[in-house]
Known about the structure:
This protein is mostly helical. It is about 75% helix and about 0% strand.
Amino acid sequence: MSFDEEWTSARAAATANVGMRLNQVDGGSSSGGGASDYKVTSPDLKAIGNEAQELYHWFEVDAFHAGAQTDTAATSLDQDGFQTGSALWTLWDTWRTQSETLLSACAHIHNHLEDTVISHANHEEVLVTNFSMSEITKHFS
């Protein structure tokens, strides 16, 4: 078998196994109403949000501690005529930018999950209150 034939066969086999497989039990179709095993609870969301917040605080302290020393080294190398000074500065600038992006992502994850937990709790409270009121109204009808 040539490479092209083998490659075509491998692609056909891979394509045949592609599809949406959410909410399926024993390979059944999703319209069969199989039980979903995906569940996320408020404590799970809080734990993930707290981990993102911990990473944020840890990384915020440790990511930038070498900034002043890097600047001093880069300036000294530049003044001594070494091209590595500007390269070191470029490296630091790239590191700082990427670190700030990571910090922003951690803050976004924490804030979003915190808001999700609070919104869910508020929604649950409204549902419980509405259900209680409908039960009371039913008894007076």
